[in-house]
């Protein structure tokens, strides 16, 4: 971030430091050459040239660097060899923290919600559907958010104070849960002659689509766009016509399934994007990440 | 690291609170605190129920302040825009440290590193370093459920350190540790405190004497004393109860504070 703001001399070809600037940096301690330090942080070729210059012009500093280097090398050699590299927890495990009680709670709640919706829809018929049914795309999200509360999730306090707490985490956990619960409900529905899975399809489609879109435009924007779309395509038609809106009809279900598969493919392909978090990325956030990475 | 610090307002202190108040319903848990913390190890001492944990939770962004102002790393605590950036730079060991029993030590610490949005490539190395720092290197592959209480507590310290935090908040970190582990943890805190703002909440006076550079005594949500450990030790006299100078200083300061509060009413 500073590199962009720092004044860059006109005589600086291609962003690299000139010989003369580097030698002033080495010999003149009073020189105001902050931008060179910033540049050196990022530019290996210039660091190499600086190292040559230091060894030529400043034997005192060169000697100090060599002594520190030797001492460090001895210390590293004396320490135990680092543990063998092993695979860390995969991204799938991180999306779905392994804690039995919250998992059970969110799965059971979601199953209850889907059967409840199915029952409600059967009772009312096609005309004048209860508006509650229009909550289908978000109802499981509420169940998930409630299931990872402080009473159920042992790590809640740590999660809630982490930068990752928020919409992204709820969506990721919902995706993980629905990937398990939806197949189960398809079987249960076939056995009992009901169709509870139908009420989860819009949710799984919306969740994966929000994550897919969010990896490009940021989650709040993605959620806003999709929520607005649902309002226009489903909620308003349902209120105006007092009938089940087209997106909730039986014949729309294959379409939801298709959307889900496509969005899930995008999520898998872009999984690296979720590692750094899906907040809107204003320039400042990117700068902070760069700064964070520079410090390490 | 030669980049100048990110320009943030009021960056002189890692944490600065003025007239900070926290209410739970009608109960006032933190009552108009004025406190600032910079780099160093700061002890937060006080009787049980004094408001230490409430204060720690507010500093950790786990619960909101209800009055006054609080700046963490230069940002107002209610500032949602910078909340994520601030949280990346915090480390927190809650009073009741919970964990996923199925995770190994390494998996758990790496999971917290992921929660802190650390760059993926840095996570395995950072986790290994902090696990070794709390002397659990030989247990890294063991599941959390197989650990003793003291080991779990040390995993709690490791997860708080994994992102190299600028503000480290430890709520009763020495609970469950044996004397040798306690000594080691205090040394670790002094080491970390050289560059970091470490706030240690405890009701054990000997932790303060051994690890902290300065002390704040909290009683009924108010600051009863703020000063160096030496000042704390010098405050007591032979008549005060306690087994050490620091303990006698603590009881004397607490008594004086309570007398002042009663007189003010």
TrEMBL record, chain A:
Swiss-Prot/TrEMBL keywords: Membrane, Transmembrane, Transmembrane helix
Transmembrane segments: 100-120, 132-150, 170-192, 252-269
Domain of life (superkingdom): Bacteria
Record-given protein name: Membrane protein
Record lineage: Bacteria, Bacillati, Actinomycetota, Actinomycetes, Micromonosporales
TrEMBL record, chain B:
Gene3D superfamilies: P-loop containing nucleotide triphosphate hydrolases (3.40.50.300)
One Pfam family named in its UniProt record: ABC_tran
GO molecular function: ATP binding; ATP hydrolysis activity
Keywords, ordered alphabetically: ATP-binding, Nucleotide-binding, Transport
Domain ABC transporter: 15-245
Coiled coil: none
Alphabetized SMART domains for the sequence: AAA
Record family assignment: Belongs to the ABC transporter superfamily.
PANTHER family membership: ABC TRANSPORTER, ATP-BINDING PROTEIN
Name of this chain's protein: ABC transporter ATP-binding protein
Taxonomic path: Bacteria, Bacillati, Actinomycetota, Actinomycetes, Micromonosporales
